[in-house]
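ok so for the tutorial part 2 we go from a plain amino acid sequence to predicted structure tokens. step 1 is just haveing the sequence, like this:
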Amino acid sequence: MNAGSTPSDLAALRSRAIDAARQAYAPYSNLRVGAALRSARGEIYAGCNVENGAYPIGGCAERGAIASAVQAEGKEFRLAAIAVAAFAADGTPLPVSPCGACRQALVEFGADAQVTFLQADGSWIEVDAGALLPYRFILPGQ
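step 2 — the prediction. this is what the tokens look like for a chain of 142 residues:
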């Protein structure tokens, strides 16, 4: 667990991620994903997946939450922790970790941020964002 992340902090993020998943717009895949993050400032932001009939232009929950955080906090936003929860149409939890594009976004804002995601049995996995994408893309000068 990262410094500053308490079990109650994680429980709150997980609950908000589950709530966000309920709001997902997923009429094509029926895969509802929600994410809730805590910024380094201690603020909470949430996002859900939003599909579109032209599949490639849908949006992921994690990047939706990050966009909300950046809009609110500006370029100073840094990610401290994020929880991700995914469910099938019938409400069954699915073991879905952040996709590659989301992993890149997570490490962009906090390679040492704590990432927790729901498993099919209802347990949660916890890992640092950098461990999800050890060979990430880094632009020169970063």
